[in-house]
Amino acid sequence: MLAMNFRGVRQIRLDRNKPEPEIKHPYDAIVRVTRSLICGSDLHLYHGRVPDTRVGMTFGHEFTGVVEAVGSGVQKLKVGDHVLVPFNVACGTCPHCKQELYGNCNESNPEATAVGGFFGYAHTGGGYDGGQAEYVRVPYADVSPTKIPDGMDLENAVLLTDVVPTGYQAAEQGGIQKGDTVVVFGAGPVGLMAARFAWFFGATRVIVIDHVDYRLEFARKFAYAEAYNFREMKDPVLFLKKATDYFGADVCIDAVGCDGTGSALQTITGKGLLLQAGDATALHWAINSVKKGGIVSIIGVYGPPWNLVPVGSLMNKGITLRANQASVKRLLPKLIDHIMSGRINPKEIITHRLPLEEVSDAYRMFSGKMDHIVKPLLIPPRANAA
């Protein structure tokens, strides 16, 4: 089958002869991919920011597909079902899954102490191949895969596998109250969703900070947010303090994670010397921009082992820090309702639609922010097979 193939840092190839996946466990399903996306988190892998990303792996944790085969124990899915597959690989029975912490499943990635299993996200995420391929093996098929509701646009369905619930959880974690000022660092797809959903929770002012002008313009149109380029400021923290009458934002959301920029110290130690897990500039700014007693929500991805952050400000300001991988299954009923009711149309953020055969170019464009790309979609050649 065709599949994306990781060959090394910034080296993506199309594998035309990857063996098709097989049922390995009674609770497995095999899904023929109909749509998949490239995520900013895939770029962390592409850029070599995530440990134990092995040559030969297929990325892609956002995908929809048609069930082609099921194991003997699968009861809720049948061949022919068209499903969206959350990026969390979750067993559904461990103590964390029972708390609806599906991103922290204890069984799907037993070698990791922090995270559960994820599709297509290195061996730190369990080593599961992802959906930038024609077929995927889906473990625990009765737990997270969800039949796509009748009438739902397929592009909205695939966005429900990660970016929509991740953006929603970023706002939810912020504990946003009516009248709050919310600052979102990062105008990528997750930041755009977080900014848009901030209004759903009652924010009366939403500010987005980034350094890419076309994405800032996108944030103004899609998320109805004020949007500013931090490269045009002497100090983004001072700018935000002035913008909030020196009070600070009620909630700050870090939607950037380890691939930040804007601080020479962070860039040298995080990306150059690899002395910390990437560049934590956005988190640094978030902690220093939020008000005393405010909330910082981290949804941008950071990896092991640690990062330089202003712990003194965190403690002395009485800041609440909330973070986690999105728990997609928990959020799906609410988000499906938002989409089917027309309150949000997530597919507006998809700017590029490419055949799977062009996956290498898609990564290069997305990484280089070429052609005003915001969110690239991949379509396998067998997507419409009978």
UniProtKB/TrEMBL annotation:
Residues 8-378 form the Enoyl reductase (ER) domain. GO terms for molecular function: oxidoreductase activity, acting on the CH-OH group of donors, NAD or NADP as acceptor; zinc ion binding. Pfam families: ADH_N, ADH_zinc_N. The keyword Zinc applies. InterPro entries: ADH-like_C, ADH-like_N, ADH_Zn_CS, ER, GroES-like_sf, NAD(P)-bd_dom_sf. Keywords: Metal-binding, Oxidoreductase, Zinc. Its cofactor is Zn(2+). Belongs to the zinc-containing alcohol dehydrogenase family. This is Alcohol dehydrogenase. It comes from Spirosoma radiotolerans.
